[in-house]
User: Fold Membrane protein insertase YidC from Runella salmonicolor.
Amino acid sequence: MERNQIIGLALIMTMLIGYQLLAPSPEPTKPNPAEQAKNAPRPAATAPAQKKLDSITAQAVYGDFASAAQGTARDIVVENDDVRVTFSTKGGNVKEVLLKKYKTYTLQPLYLIDEQSSTFSLELPTNKGTVNLSELYFTTDAQSQTISAGKSAKVSFRLPMGNNQYVEQTYTVQGNGYLIDYDVQLVGLDGLVKNEPTRLVWQDKLKQLENDMAENRKVVTTNYYSDGSLSNIGAGQSENVEEKIEQPVSWFSHKNKYFLTAFITKGTALSNVTLKSLVDITDTTYIKTMQSEGSLATADLKAGKGNFQLFFGPNDYQVVKEVKAAPDFGDNVDLGYAILKPLNKFFFVPMFNFLEKFFSNYGILIIVLVLIVKLVMTPLVYKSYVSMAKMRMLAPELAVIREKVGDDAAKMQQEQMKLYQQVGVSPLSGCIPVLATMPILMSLFFLFPNLIELRQEAFLWASDLSTYDAPIKLPFSIPFYGAHVSIFTLAMTISQLVYAWYNNQITPTQVQQPGMPDMRMLTYFMPVMFMFIMNSFPAGLSFYYLVSNVVTILQQQIIRRFVNDDKIRAILEENRKKIASGVKKKSKFSDILERSMKAAEEAKKQADDAKKQTEAKRQQLKKKNP
Assistant:
């Protein structure tokens, strides 16, 4: 987990606990993507290239496959509603993939891979040495075509060896979606190809598709599924990393911030897998180079069991979760820790998708989402407010106790707990909304940076809610803050400070331990610290917190009008009488508190007695040995 995320989560928890426990409130039109893709310039076909190899050299390098070492590369373009895939007869590989519904951060056509950025190869173990199929020229009868939804197209590339011997790679593209079936078969090659493993190597240079190169480098990873669990390399790392995987790998993906390329096995898994994450911080074109290689069972390729899938598309949870051949493929979208994931998976993500049907503006959508969450939380907030109001009613009695005990903070704490016990008030009841709110805020802290739905969605001055808004650029960089000012983060911080001031104004003075900082000042300090963390986080997340703070203040003001102080005071007096007379049983909390206080008093008494005995013995020894 990244340092900023750890600090951010810690600040969220500290802020919530500080607000509620230390200072409790007693008052309480887009362009058409398909049209853009249609008008996008098609890449020029590869110019015919002739292998400059004489027959002797070709025979030495490629052995029985030397006849395919020379040829002319030809492109086959197949497109559906979502992608335009360019195949090449050289290597029989996917040469280029255009995502038709997405643009780069500079609003250029988004080519997820191309001939310069991606190299995919299969290395066959022949009797005369290893042969790299990506360097050979295949034949095909396929033609470029556009396919409609509900239909599919097959593109087969064959490397004929004569006598019904050949290598064949077949791609099946559906009429929509980003998944391509990929089948490899070795026919009649038992005498030419050994049953040693075929090596697969995919080197993928991930392009800068978003505006912040430094932040993008932190989230680029290779995810892989092995031994029943998902792991990754490269996350948050700015240096070269290499990892060897001992267990077979079912699938791996090269993950940019919002997009994926992936290799998925449908039968035999990859073995002897080596993953590399390579970083060149001086490179302004590519974020990282992710290289994945592993071994395929050649015997399976000969037996017609070389069935795989390739994925080229958005890291959209609604899309990746539907890849059935890859277990937990939906986890390419980071939904947070296991304890938080269900909240994002079953509430926030579906809620986003539901609200998208009614709101095209994502700023409005976020406001509606906040209102829904706050509405769900209203009963807990109301109960918390009533509990806090009860504690406020006890402020005069606490003031009298404070005058009696003076500066003895421990004694003050004991007397305060006794008073709560006498009137049936549990100070912990005010923590319920805090405990319920913390998972929500922490879940969103993970979700918003990974939510592709916010990508390039504009609201007010923010052109893209998936990244920070930066209408103000600084001529210098502030440590831990950056060289820009996020207005949404600034507004969020102001709303937190207003909320802290509001709470502090109406909260009775708390008992302060000697040498401890003023907790009221801490509630002002935390939002400022949080501002530094959030300045480079998505504008959508800062906007959510801003709206949440404003709605919380309004919610408390509304609840305040439904709570009658006189009735609460009467309830406290009634509880006092019933508890004193034994008519009303003490709460479990009161029983635990009473036992704890008695145990503390007994421990203190024993400690004092032990201290007196020690002092007496010391005096006796002093008299004997003056």
